[in-house]
């Protein structure tokens, strides 16, 4: 047995078909949705706990290239089910090859999204995938095509769509409570958070024995290991993430678009400027940024990160008032707008039983998720174009119908990025 | 530091623009000298300055030729690998044919081959393609994969024969298949098809599916052939599903419908699920699904409900309606949910009956669908149901009338509100909150006056408030008349609440009268009602009531209402708000009200507010809150 394959827990029972393993009062075992988690650090761990709580789902596999994360996740599953039948692997291919896996939950760094998502679609697996949809536009579009080709269910982790306050704010805007909207301001955080205090550890050192370093890099350029490059803070390095802008675009720009009914279109021009770290050894994404996106019909969207003059959250400004929302609540002017009720004959956005729950419901019913990939692609596009504009220091014109950059061959090249061999989409 | 970089970048950009393509910016040279020694883990300061410089140049759209030439020389130097990698990243954005020779040379060296490949892949033009092809020809074993991937990414049709030869290679065949899929022309398709008999791999099949999609517009019959082949039994289920999905796009329904029907009856569960979904989108699918429905297991029947929900053909509608009576809960639930998309008024009684007869998820689904069924005829069916002899069904119809804000439901709802069981009356009044208009207001006033319990009075009051709020007319006179003719203090209190919602100036004299001469219960109701007034006009009345001795409880209530109204946003100057709040502070006899004033002060930042807060700081009971207000005001007034 290869040391990089199969289970590594000291004693693991033979893997049985997950559909045969369910135990519980309400859902017969054979009817449970079999879930595999690929990437179980941080966000993946949160996702794992959420799916474990679902009575009609069964976590049948966990996968991570860091055995510390993997061991912890396996123990959590084992403790929850009081059984050792969960597949534990460092290879996502092994998980996708399992015919008894219905769906996978992807909580891996952005640079891995494209490769694994497309492989999952090929294997006929439904996917709950963390935002942003992919590390770059080209990969995001390829994900959309693969999901369409195989007809699988996809839910992007833009979970704010499943929260009542966000939905209500969008309904107020959609139903004209603040008149015609001319401008929307999206306030995001700025900076590079150093959650675990490892940001200074940038000198190349041998990777920990528990981490398959080359596998962690995957399709990203080869680079020596250092602690600041990996868990959580990978998002501050452009090889693996897109800084605060791309970390949040799938949340707040997603909501801004939802409120304006822009799920099927995008800006016509994006101009951004960023303030990049003047030094440091590794992190190279913008510390602060302002992205101005203009849409057909004159609508303007400002996406600002790290600036005090733009309030965190989403603020739609209309002819008759404004609506602001973020995770702390909703505010409006006039104030009374927030007290209004959406009438039965007005536009009502879909109610969600919870973002993860809705995904499982759709896997079961074949229904449409709240955040399918083509919607996520549109929500993320202002971010992709913003990053390109920042890097080139100039405005980018965009054709939202054909989803192409207009008249800028250099910018066009930046829509996608070559993958390190042997990885491909 | 950051400003210095930006300034440098702007200066450089200007310099380049001025000099055209003659020279690279002077600042480039010292930066490249530092980057030539750059290693991973070192401070990126020179890298950051170099990238800022390039951004400055890009922003002016100045010619990049001189910089490219200098970067080519850099790649030819003995700079570090990390330095060369950095330069390659940038050449990938603006490099031209001029960069190709040095990159081609780098592609021969193991250490630099990968970064050369990244760059060549991104540089458009024939020269880079030639270099990629040559590199593939020279490479061996799995080293070829990267070059194959790049030629695929470039969609290099000329590489088709070379890639086709690699399809049978166990090490690189899958990569070659993917590359051919990306090229996606007729030759690529032929090569992939030719390899199919000798391969069971998923990659080859996916490549065929992608290639077929790419040529679909140009050669539909070739695409159709691929889909037909891959839809056959013996292929993996995801492949069969994808092929069937492709067929539904490219082939006529006469061809796809039987295939989908077969998949539905014989396929593994995942294929059945996909077939149900595709049949739901196919013209003949309704009849096929209706025919197959009785033989399907419950989980598939539930899926069928969802697939049929938007269909209007008779077999589909009949199947969904039949699902409501299924012996399996999941099927009933799915059927009830599917009916939400209906525009058929005939489902209204069915849904109401299910909502009345069930509980839990089924009742919830039945109600939601009952509220969602579209069309004026559905509203008419709901209104007709307001007189249903079955009380439980009638209650469901009443709720539906409210949720749907069914036009024309007012008279029947008023009738229900005015007679029959208390539960029906209460639900009807609740529905009237959503539906009542001007026509219903006089009767609602009567119902309020005639209400026999506090609960029913409260429901009538709420319905009346909602109707008055929606109305564009003044209802002051009739409401005042009702107030005067009623001897019931609770009814009078409720009428004052209704008047406060309208907030019309012509109602204020009645409030003043009630505050001065009414019984205690009415005075209290008047104060409470004025607290809801939409503007600050009642402030003098409230402060007067607050100052009145003899009724401490009412005074406190009036003062709190006053502070609430005075704290509302307004267009008056902060000093005026401070003056109003000072009156409240001085009238306050308890620390609680003083604290409320102090909490409101920072929203009116001015010298007068600060003076009041400073004065309050000397009051031991509220010194702590006053200090907070003083701090906030001083910061705001800085």
Quick structural gist:
The complex is a heterodimer of chains A (425) and B (638). Chain A is α/β, with parallel strands linked by helices and 425 residues long.
- How many helices of chain A? 11
User: pLDDT below 50 for ≥5 consecutive residues: which ranges of chain B?
Assistant: 1-8, 13-20
Oligomer kind: heterodimer
Strand count, sense and barrel status of the largest sheet of chain B are: none
User: Approximately how much beta-strand content do the residues of chain A carry?
Assistant: 15-25%
Contiguous runs where pLDDT drops below 50 for at least 5 residues of chain A? 1-25
Report the radius of gyration of chain A as a whole number of Å. Answer: 22 Å
What distance separates the N and C termini of chain A?
A: 28 Å
Describe the model.
The complex is a heterodimer of chains A (425) and B (638). Chain A has 425 residues and is of the alpha/beta class. Chain A has eleven helices and 15 strands. Chain A has helices spanning 43-52, 67-81, 92-97, 110-122, 137-150, 164-174, 213-217, 243-260, 355-365, 373-392, 409-413, and strands spanning 33-38, 57-63, 87-89, 103-106, 126-129, 154-156, 181-188, 269-275, 288-294, 300-305, 313-318, 321-326, 329-333, 396-399, 404-406. Chain A has a nine-stranded mixed β-sheet. A six-stranded parallel β-sheet of chain A has the order 3-2-1-4-5-6, with helices on both faces. In chain A, helix 4 links the parallel strand 4 and strand 5. The longest helix of chain A has 20 residues, at 373-392. Chain A is globular and about 60 Å long. Chain B has 638 residues and is mostly helical. Chain B has 39 helices and no strands. Mean pLDDT of chain B is 92; it is low at 1-8 and 13-20. The chains are: A alpha/beta (425), B mainly alpha (638). At the A-B interface, helix 5, helix 10 and helix 11 of A face helix 3, helix 5, helix 7, helix 9 and helix 13 of B.
């Amino acid at each position: 047995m290869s040391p990089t394959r199969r289970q590594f827990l000291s004693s693991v029972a033979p893997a049985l078909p997950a559909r045969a393993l369910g135990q519980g009062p309400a859902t017969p075992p054979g009817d449970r949705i079999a879930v595999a988690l690929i990437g179980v650090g941080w966000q993946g761990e949160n996702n794992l706990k959420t799916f474990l709580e679902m009575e009609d789902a069964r976590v049948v596999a966990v996968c991570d290239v860091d055995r510390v994360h993997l061991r912890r996740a396996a123990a959590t599953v084992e403790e929850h089910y009081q059984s050792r039948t969960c597949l534990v692997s460092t290879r996502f291919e092994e998980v996708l090859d399992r015919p008894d896996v219905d769906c996978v939950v992807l909580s891996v760094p952005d640079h891995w999204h494209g490769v694994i998502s497309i492989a999952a679609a090929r294997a006929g697996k439904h996917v709950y995938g963390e935002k942003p949809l992919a590390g770059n536009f080209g990969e995001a579009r390829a994900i959309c095509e693969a999901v369409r080709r195989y007809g699988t269910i996809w839910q992007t982790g833009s979970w704010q769509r499943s929260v009542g306050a966000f939905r209500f704010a969008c309904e107020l805007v959609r139903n004209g409570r603040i008149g015609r909207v001319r401008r929307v301001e999206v306030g995001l955080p700025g900076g590079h958070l150093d959650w675990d205090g490892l940001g200074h550890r940038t000198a190349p050192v041998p990777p920990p024995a528990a981490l398959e370093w080359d596998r962690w890099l995957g399709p990203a350029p080869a680079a020596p290991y250092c602690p600041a490059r990996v868990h959580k803070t990978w998002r501050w390095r452009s090889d693996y993430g897109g800084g605060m802008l791309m970390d949040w675009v799938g949340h707040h720009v997603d909501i801004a678009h939802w409120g304006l009914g822009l799920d099927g279109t995008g800006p016509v021009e994006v101009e951004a400027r960023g303030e990049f770290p003047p030094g440091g050894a590794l992190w190279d994404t913008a510390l602060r940024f302002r992205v101005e996106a203009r849409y057909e019909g004159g609508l303007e969207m400002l996406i600002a990160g790290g600036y005090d003059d733009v309030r965190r959250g989403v603020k739609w400004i209309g002819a008759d008032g404004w609506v602001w929302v973020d995770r702390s609540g909703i505010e409006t002017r006039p104030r009374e707008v927030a007290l209004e009720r959406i009438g039965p004959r007005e536009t009502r956005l879909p109610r969600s039983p919870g973002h993860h729950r809705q995904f499982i419901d759709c896997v079961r019913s074949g229904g449409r998720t709240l955040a399918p990939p083509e919607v996520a692609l549109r929500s993320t596009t202002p971010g992709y174009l913003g990053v390109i504009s920042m890097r080139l220091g100039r405005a980018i014109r965009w054709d939202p119908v054909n989803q192409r950059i207009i008249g800028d061959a250099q910018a066009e090249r930046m829509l996608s990025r070559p993958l390190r061999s042997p990885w491909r989409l | 530091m950051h400003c210095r970089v930006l300034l440098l970048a702007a200066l450089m950009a200007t310099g380049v623009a001025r000099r055209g393509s003659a020279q690279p910016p002077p600042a480039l040279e010292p930066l490249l000298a530092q980057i030539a020694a750059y290693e991973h883990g070192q401070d990126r300061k020179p890298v950051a300055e170099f990238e800022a410089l390039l951004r400055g140049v890009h922003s002016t759209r100045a010619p990049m030729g001189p910089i490219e030439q200098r970067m080519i020389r850099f790649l030819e130097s003995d700079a570090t690998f990390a330095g060369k990698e950095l330069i390659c990243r940038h050449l990938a954005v603006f490099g031209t044919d001029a960069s190709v020779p040095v990159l081609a040379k780098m592609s021969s060296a193991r250490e630099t081959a990968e970064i050369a490949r990244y760059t060549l892949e991104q540089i458009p033009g024939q020269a880079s393609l030639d270099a990629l092809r040559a590199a593939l020809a020279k490479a061996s074993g799995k080293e070829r994969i990267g070059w194959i991937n790049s030629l695929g990414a470039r969609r290099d049709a000329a590489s088709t024969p070379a890639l086709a030869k690699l399809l049978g290679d166990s090490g690189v065949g899958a990569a070659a298949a993917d590359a051919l899929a990306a090229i996606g022309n007729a030759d690529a398709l032929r090569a992939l098809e030719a390899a199919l008999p000798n391969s069971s791999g998923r990659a080859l099949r996916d490549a065929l599916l992608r290639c077929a999609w790419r040529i679909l517009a140009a050669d539909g019959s070739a695409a159709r052939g691929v889909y037909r082949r891959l839809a056959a039994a013996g292929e993996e289920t995801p492949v069969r599903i994808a092929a069937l999905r492709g067929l539904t796009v490219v082939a006529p329904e006469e061809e796809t419908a039987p295939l989908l029907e077969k998949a539905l009856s014989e396929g593994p569960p995942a294929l059945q699920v996909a077939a149900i979904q595709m049949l739901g989108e196919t013209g003949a699918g309704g009849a096929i699904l209706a025919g197959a429905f009785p033989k399907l297991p419950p989980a598939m029947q539930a899926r069928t409900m969802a697939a049929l929900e938007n269909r209007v053909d008779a077999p589909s509608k009949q199947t969904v309606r039949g699902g409501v009576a299924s012996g399996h809960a999941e099927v009933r639930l799915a059927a009830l949910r599917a009916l939400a998309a209906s525009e058929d008024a005939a489902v209204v009684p069915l849904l109401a009956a299910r909502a009345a007869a069930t509980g839990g998820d089924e009742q919830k689904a039945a109600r939601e669908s009952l509220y969602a069924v579209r069309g004026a005829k559905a509203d008419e069916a709901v209104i007709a149901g307001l007189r249903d002899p079955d009380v439980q069904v009638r209650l469901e119809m009443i709720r539906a009338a409210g949720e749907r804000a069914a036009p024309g439901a007012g008279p029947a709802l008023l009738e229900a509100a005015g007679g029959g069981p208390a539960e029906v009356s209460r639900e009807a009044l609740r529905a009237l909150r959503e539906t009542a208009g001007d026509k219903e207001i006089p009767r609602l006033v009567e119902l309020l006056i005639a209400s026999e319990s506090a609960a029913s009075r409260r429901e009538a009051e709420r319905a009346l408030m909602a109707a008055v709020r929606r109305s564009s007319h003044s209802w002051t006179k009739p409401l005042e008349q009702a107030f005067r003719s009623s001897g019931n203090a609770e009814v009078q209190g409720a009428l004052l609440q209704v008047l406060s919602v309208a907030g019309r100036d012509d109602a204020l004299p009645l409030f003043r009268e009630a505050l001065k001469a009414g019984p205690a219960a009415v005075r209290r109701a008047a104060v409470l009602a004025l607290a809801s007034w939409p503007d600050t006009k009642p402030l003098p009345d409230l402060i007067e009531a607050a100052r009145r001795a003899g009724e401490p409880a009412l005074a406190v209530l009036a003062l709190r209402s006053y502070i609430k109204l005075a704290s509302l946003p307004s267009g008056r100057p902060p000093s005026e708000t401070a003056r109003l709040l000072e009156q409240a502070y001085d009238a306050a006899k308890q620390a609680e009200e003083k604290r409320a004033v102090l909490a409101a002060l920072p929203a009116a930042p001015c010298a007068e507010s600060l003076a009041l807060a400073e004065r309050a700081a000397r009051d031991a009971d509220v010194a702590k809150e006053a200090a907070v207000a003083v701090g906030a005001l001083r910061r705001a007034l800085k």
